[in-house]
Design a protein that fits this description.
The chain is built from 1 helix and 5 strands. The protein has about 70 residues and is mainly beta.
């Protein structure tokens, strides 16, 4: 699901969710965000629009295999 990330330092980043659970959200984004960055997340589907807040706790590059899977 596409999402928009609004980091505390300003701007907006377009991202795609990889995994969501009650304890967190994993997204793929073109530019890395520093650990500890506070973000506002806007997630929209045809049924619902959610605005969430969170903090970056992990950031790692995708493996070549994960990139091929999309």
């Amino acid at each position: 699901v596409p999402v928009r990330l609004f980091p505390g330092h300003g701007g907006v980043l377009l991202a795609t969710t990889r995994d969501a659970s009650a304890s967190g959200l994993s997204v793929v984004v073109a530019a890395p965000l520093p650990i500890g960055t506070h973000v506002r997340v806007e997630l929209e589907t045809p049924q619902v629009r959610q605005c969430l807040t969170g903090e970056v706790v992990r950031c790692r590059p995708l493996t070549p295999a994960a990139r091929r899977r999309g």
